[in-house]
């Protein structure tokens, strides 16, 4: 009986090892946000070049950098959402998130399914941004390629429709 209680206490305490993942995800999110800020500085430099030259090539580079910035900050938010979810599922509720008047319910994770849903939506947005960044580089040479691009847009719209919360 005492041995079982000790083992159960050890097992319950082992959930605290999840804190390693929480800290790692938060640290990685900060690193990704710093990368995003560096990309924003690069974007400002490109914007300045575009204003001075009006070059179409610089404009294309500027559009691609903006898309990369969106992708970078979304990746950082995925890492934060995952860190919040791990903490809420294994350690404790985030009281600050529940008390927040600025939409604190967004980051309240109550189950693994809730975490998967929130992460899935952000990852879907990242994939959509990546697809459209490929579209900016593509120059369709035939009607079939244009049709494929149209089908991809329809599939993306369908994925967004299916990922919408049902209320």
TrEMBL record:
Segments traversing the membrane: 12-37, 62-87, 119-136, 142-162
Q: Superkingdom, according to UniProt?
A: Bacteria
Question: Which one Pfam family would you cite for this protein?
Answer: UPF0114
List, alphabetically, the InterPro entries matched.
UPF0114 (IPR005134)
Give the keywords, sorted.
Membrane, Transmembrane, Transmembrane helix
Check the record and name the PANTHER family matching this protein: OS06G0710300 PROTEIN
**Name by which UniProt lists this protein:** Uncharacterized protein UPF0114
